[in-house]
Amino acid sequence: MEVILLERVEKLGQMGDVVKVRPGFARNFLLPRNKALRASEANKKVFEAQRAELEARNLERRKDAEGAAKKLDGRSFVIIRQASEAGLLYGSVSTRDIADAAAAEGVKVDRAQVRLDKPLKSLGVSKVRVILHPEVSATIEINIARSADEAERQARGENVLLRVDEKAASAEVESTAEFFDETAQSAARRE
What we know:
alpha+beta, Ribosomal Protein L9, domain 2, 4-stranded mixed beta sheet, 3-stranded antiparallel beta sheet, 5 helices, about 25% strand, elongated
């Protein structure tokens, strides 16, 4: 099915492009969201008549989105979740959770604007893209932790999954290695 794009659509085309898409994608996504028109002769004429108005509206929305992107880009949001000792979450962090965390800090982000490349299913700091406009995006950090204290430690770059007994075990390994180094050095002196 051929459609005329009424705005830029990522990985598809720019405003005014006539592109061929699968019928289901057009019926279920592009047409209901007013992102495209069916590519008929009558609709081509309607689009050309409204082109200047659509471009002006798009430019205005883009400027608003650029202003919001400057405020949002680089911000960090903390999400507290229960997790196993290995750092795996009991569930995952969704786009709704990210939008709610941003709203709690006074930033309005719609969950449809949040783009997750992969599911967030473990503790740590992840970068997430927020698409504010088809031509404007911002990158935010999502800090997933078990507590606020743990979130602060992760923000500083500390590995929170390293447990106390692992620290003791690594100290024991280091002391054993030092012992063998000293033994080897003393044996070399005796020879």
